[in-house]
Amino acid sequence: MDLDLNSLWFTLIAVLFMGFFLLEGFDYGVGMWLPFLGKSDRERREIINTIGPIWDANEVWLITAGGAIFAAFPHWYATMFSGFYLALLVILVALILRGVAFEFRSKVEDPRWRAWWDRAIFFGSAVPALLWGVAIANLIRGVPIDADMHFTGNFFDLLSPYTLAGGAASLTLFLLHGAIFLNLKTTGAVMERAHQAARAVWLPTVIAVVAFVALSYVDTDMFDRLGVNPGVSAFGAAVALLASGWLLRERQNGWAFVMTGLTILLTVITVFRGLYPRVMVSSTDDAYSLTIYNASSSDYTLQVMTVVALTVLPVVLIYFGWTYWVFRRRIVSEQELEY
Predict the structure, then answer these.
(1) Does residue 251 sit in helix, strand or coil?
(2) Fewer Cβ atoms within 10 A, N terminus or C terminus of the chain?
């Protein structure tokens, strides 16, 4: 394809979602494992500290992606946010509750107080992990959109066996990604429990992902567009997910984390390849689908955005990488847990 500005911004938005799901994926996973792997308040504090300095930075990728969609493809933004309004509102409330829980949990030493906030962290992680998969499945399968780019359905049109399968795939994949991350960032009993949790959830993850892919052949046109062989990205995602199970068994947890990360990145690439040049599929009539051309801003707007992005983005990425480097060490269970 010719990489015009419309295609360039479609690609940049794909990259932003790749970064978001890669980083927020293990973030959600840690939150979901919190009440199960932390057997004491100190251990739960240890688990929270693994993402304490970075969880809010990870969410910046989503904010940036939303801003890029708003500026580059305003019709996509308008149709998606009106059609997915209730689902996105639920995600937003869950994320707010989760963020408040991180900050308020340690304000009172009462075990009941902390238990309620731990539940908030769990639900604030599990709900988005599920609903993001549902949302992506709807983008692939299609939603009711008319000739005026208006969403004509309702919330229940977004729920189907296929979209719920997408939610199950994202939920289990993030659980696996988070468990491996915890194994790399903790020590002692928490580290061992995280390793066992990763091994236990690997097979359900494979089953959920395979089921979602199989349903995608039946319920969507993505593989009609990509072909029976959907390309290197989809094949690579499958190989990486399978390899992570073998690496976990061999206790090569660093490489297992790389493999689950690759699975997420390559899956997002496959989804965007299957959509291109569309950004939202219309289940009413494919002619009503939103594309990178009929949903975009003016050429001048895209030109200005490109200059700004190419100037600022390298600085942001360098700072982001530096932050992860500073907080790269394990959380040692014997150390003072102050966060």
Answers:
(1) coil
(2) N
Cross-strand bridge partners of residue 282? 143
Sign of CA dihedral 205, 211, 212, 213: positive
Say whether 144 sits in a helix, a strand or coil.
coil
Omega prior to 161 cis, within 30 of 0: no
Least Cα distance to 275 among 337, 223, 219, 327 occurs for 223
Q: Are 49 and 331 in contact (CB under 8 A)?
A: yes
Question: In terms of Cα–Cα distance, which of 292, 300, 269, 276 is closest to 6?
Answer: 292
Helix spans in 159-298 (H)? 161-185, 188-219, 222-226, 232-249, 253-275
Residue spans of the domains in the chain: they are 5-326
Judge whether 218 and 196 are in contact, CB under 8 Å. Answer: no
Q: Measure the CA–CA gap between 330 and 102, rounded to whole angstroms.
A: 19
Q: 307: burial class by Cβ within 10 Å (0-12, 13-18, 19+)? A: exposed
Which pLDDT tens digits describe the chain residue by residue (339 residues)? 446 899 999 999 999 999 999 999 999 999 999 999 998 888 999 999 998 888 888 888 888 899 999 999 999 999 998 888 888 899 999 999 999 998 888 888 888 888 999 999 999 999 999 999 999 999 989 999 999 999 988 888 888 999 999 999 999 999 999 999 999 999 889 999 999 999 999 999 999 999 998 898 888 887 776 665 677 888 899 999 999 999 999 999 999 999 999 999 999 999 998 888 999 999 888 899 999 999 999 999 999 999 988 888 888 888 878 877 887 777 766 544 444
